[in-house]
Structures are given as C-alpha cells and as structure tokens.
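Chain X:
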Amino acid sequence: MDPDPFWNAWTPSMRASLCFVFREGKILMIRKKRGLGAGKINGPGGRLEPGETPLQAAVRETEEELRVTPLDPVERGELHFQFADGLALHCTVYTAEGCLGEPEETDEAIPHWMDPGTLPYAEMWDDDRLWIPGMLEGKSFRGYFRFDGERMLSQEILWDTLAGR
C-alpha cells in the first residue's frame, strides 16, 4: 500500500533519528528541554550531521542527550512530517535492548525510565500515540503526518510486522 500521493514528490529539508532504549521492562524517555518539541516527552534523538548515517545520529544523540550508549540499535520505522511552516522532516526510528551507562540529565534532556504500557501520550506529540503502541508490539512502520505547529492535521501509517522487538 502506498501513502497519499502528496508524499510521492515530498523531499525532506531535515533528517533526524530517534532511539528508544529498553531495559528491565522499561523504556527510556526524555523530557526535551530545547528545540523542536521542547517540554514534550519523547525518545532521545535529533538531526543528522553532514555525512552521518541515521544510525550514527541515533547513537550520538542518545549519548549527547543522556550520556548513555544504546546497545545494538535496530531500525524499526520511518516517520515523515510536513509542517505548515515549511519544515519537512524525515526521522528514522530505532530501538535498543539496553545501554551502557546510567542516564543523566543534560542541558538538552531529562531522562525518565517509564512503563511502556502507561506512557504519558498527553505530554507527547499527537502522532506518538498512533505508532508507538505498534512499535512496542514488534511492528515496523512508515508514518506520514502533517502538522500546523503542534496540531496534527492528517496522519497515515503503513505497518509491517517484524519478528520480535
């Protein structure tokens, strides 16, 4: 199944990565302190640097934001965002089973180990409640979202099932 034809000619103006770390039945989330989504709960991540792969960015951003290194991140999905202000963001999503070190608060993020079944979706981006539960069930995905500021205007998710998380 293909997404809305709008996305066929779409080109991102920014590329980013997210990395969700799991340990002892909990998921490592952050409260973002600055930048896009400041104040919201999310996974660690951010924009790719020139010449960097999405995987390299996922590891680097997790290290910078929380002072931990995710173990063997696995690509789980892709998110495509078109914002009314013109920002066109492509984000690659990874999960990791564990990390080296203990999360620390930095000037970018406050770490929180959370129960995956009780994530505070009211404090997260509106699209998160649509794809994170599927990711937690072991599904891979491609999500397509249009936003005006923090308000989601449209959404479409295409699912593929992977064996395990």
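Chain Y:
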Amino acid sequence: MSTHVVAIDQGTTSTRAIVFNHDGRVVAIGQKEHEQIFPQAGWVEHDATEIWNNTREVIGQALSKADITRHEVAAVGITNQRETAIVWDATTGDPICNAIVWQDTRTQSIVDRLAKDGGIRRFAEKTGLPLSTYFSATKIAWILENVDGARERAERGELLFGTPDTWVVWNLSGGTDGGVHVTDVSNASRTLLMDLETLDWDDELLEAFDIPRSMLPEIRSSSEKYADVEQSSVLREVPIAGILGDQQAATFGQAAFDTGEAKNTYGTGNFLIVNTGEDIVHSEHGLITTVGYKLGEQPAHYALEGSIAVTGSLIQWLRDNLGIIRDAKEVEKLAKSVDDNGGVYFVPAFSGLFAPYWRSDARGAMVGMTRFVTKAHIARAALEATAFQTREVLDAVNADTGIPLEELKVDGGMIGNELLMQFQADILGVPVIRPVVAETTALGAAYAAGLAVGFWSDLDELREKWQEKKRWEPQIDDAEREALLTQWKKAVTRTFDWVDDSPAR
C-alpha cells in the first residue's frame, strides 16, 4: 500500500530527499552537500555529475531512515534551484562543462549586447523577465559560444539543456536508456525563452539568443505523470509526477493557492512570491512575472516574485570567507550579544542587486564602520540585510497590486533564527508567521506529485493541512522603522556604479 510521497529537493548548496506521510509531515530526510565552485570572480559553478550521484545517495538515505520500500511510495516529486543551466551529451549523458549557477554573472556582456536594442525589458512583455545574468538563456548562449565544439554539436542535435529538475528527471527515468527530457512551466518561465501566454518556447526568443530548439526539454504541467523511475533505482517503477521550481514549490507547500496569497522563502537567497491567479500581472516596480503552477490540464496560475540574490549565503560568507563564525547557527548568538547594529549596514550585492533594483553594476558594501564596531555588529548587520531587502521587495509588491500585505508566511532554513524573524516583523510592520512544517519547498513538490496520482484528492484537502506554529508581531514604532529604512536605502545607493569598463578593471 502506498502511504508516502518522496520529494527530491535539488538546491543550490545540497540535494535532499524527504519522505512525507499522508498528513504532509516529514518522516525522514537524506541530505548531501555538493561543492561550490568559484573559478574566478563572478563565476559560480556546480558539478552536475556530483549532483546526480548525490541524488541517488540521498534517496537511499531517506528510504532507509523511514524504513520503507518503493512499494510504500505513491509518487516522486522534484523541486530545484531554477535558473542554473546544465548542458549534456544526449548519447553519453556526460555534461559538457560544469553547471552555470543562477548566481553567476559571467554573461553580463551577452546581456549588454541584447539590451542595446530595447533595453533590459526588451523581452519582458512576453517573458515577464528583465534581461539579466540571473536567467538561463544567457548561460546557454555563453556555453554555446565558449565551450569548444558546443555550437556545432548543438546544431546537430547532440546536446540537451535543462535546469536541475530536467537533469534529475532525465537521469532518474533512465538517462541514455530512455530518460524523458522534460521540465514544467514554473521552471521554463525562468529561462527567458518561454512565452507566458502560450506556455511554449518562443521562436523569436530562441533566435535572439541563438539557441537551437532541439536542445530544450518539453514543457509540461507541474502535476502529471512524466515517467516511471528506472529499474536500477531503489524507487524503480514509482511514478515521477510533480515538478516545481523551488520558490513556486514553497508557495505551493504553504497552501498559497489563491490570488493575493504570498510567502517568503529564506534560503541561499530570498524569494517573495504573490499569487496573481490566472492573470498575468506585469510589474512596474522591479518584480518578476512568473508562472506559479499548473495542475494537469487546468489553467496556469501566475505570480509576482521579488528575487533577492544573497541572504543565507551571506551567513555562509561570514563563516567561510571571514571566519567570524564557525557554524551558521552561531550567527544568532553573536548578533544577540549587541543591542543594535552599531550603525553598520551591510548590502550584500555580491552578484549585483536583484529585485527591485536590477543593478548588475552594484557590488557589496559595508558602510557606517567606526572603531566601535565589532564582529557582533557585523553579524547583526548581515541578518538585518535579509530583512531590509525583503521589506523593499514587499513595498514593490504592494505598489504593483495595490493591496497591502497583512501578514507574511515564511519558510526556509533561516526562519529558525528568532532574532531575524522578530526584526523582519519589526521592519515590515506586519506579523510574520512560521508554519508547523517548515520544509515547504519539498512539501510543495510532494503535493504536486501526490495530486497527480490521487494520493491527495484536491487543493482543499491540502489547505486543511497547513498549520501555524509561531507568530512574530512588530515591536517598534513607525518613526524608528522609517529611520532604519532611510539609513538602509542610503547604504544601498553606495553600491551602485561600482562595476565599469575602465582599463583598470
């Protein structure tokens, strides 16, 4: 009897397999980190083969910890880091180079080249996205232009592209022995190659980026049976039935199915998504228009998204680059040892600034430094940067929708940080709510897969499973809030225009 669903969460820093029961509760987790590769400034890469090997390993870990077999698994759902680009040989299954990660900025020259005709919003009406190094299309173009022989092989139909969901599904369903080459609408909407209205690859966009259509996966809904797991896997013959990009999956896992409902995920970066229903709403305030989800043959649901590049990864940077902390969990204790940030504001524009600014020329800055400042103040400023950036994105959401958000549901690895959650409520001026099940990204993928095979009946059943665990209420007044925001915005302006084309660079 099938009593569980397995979600594979292929994230930026690790791959996890999580077993959920029918109540939507976590039964077991398998997890393994993969290497973060930084060949030079602005370049961020992953080894796609390592990711696939880790995927197989964590599936075994999770099933072993849950003490279940494939016969008790109704379906597998996939969620993933979205814009990361993988190109591989269709015959051998070998990647032709490392995956280029969503944070990577090497493709700025391609962005600049395309933006000469129409600016960074050249394709926004069709795709909902600005021209940016963030999205997949420029990464594919870079690979075709810079990896020896890639262009010719792609033109001959020998190469396949996919974001990590496509790579995992292709391998999980057989790879070179019959693997299916698919993605879902939520991931496809992050490539700069899909038309939001037709939900298909667009010839004009493919021509602009000079990408052969034969490389691209088939676009499917977020909840349907794509294939069965291949025979050598411990999950053999279990249907793969759900795919959602990580932030859309978190929104789905938060049961934010209806127009106006929202969530904010605190991970490597931060991602605020507001459901706009079946309407495509184009932002005038620096947000992305994206596909939220599509269930089978039902109409697609769209969303506005505010993407912030660096939040949780800033804490990793404090640990790995500066050695201020030995473990990410130490940052809260260190930050709590001081009453405030000591006048320090930390703008982590390591990959430029994403929403709502979209300034690729920006770079990180720490301002307000005096002899009084200690590493504790820097730790506190790093946490506060996450909350300040979220406030700016939320202001853009309110401006675009005209409907002030009354509360914010949160999820992701950083929501266990009580200091951050309280400061987030303070700087937003609205309650912040943490659910009972914090693994909402994986849960969303599990929900999509379970719905496709009848493990769960409908969205109403899933709504009933969402429960609040903790709520933070604002504790500062409007005057203090505005004073803090004024200083933050002043700090943000100091990061602008840092990258230029001067000979010294």
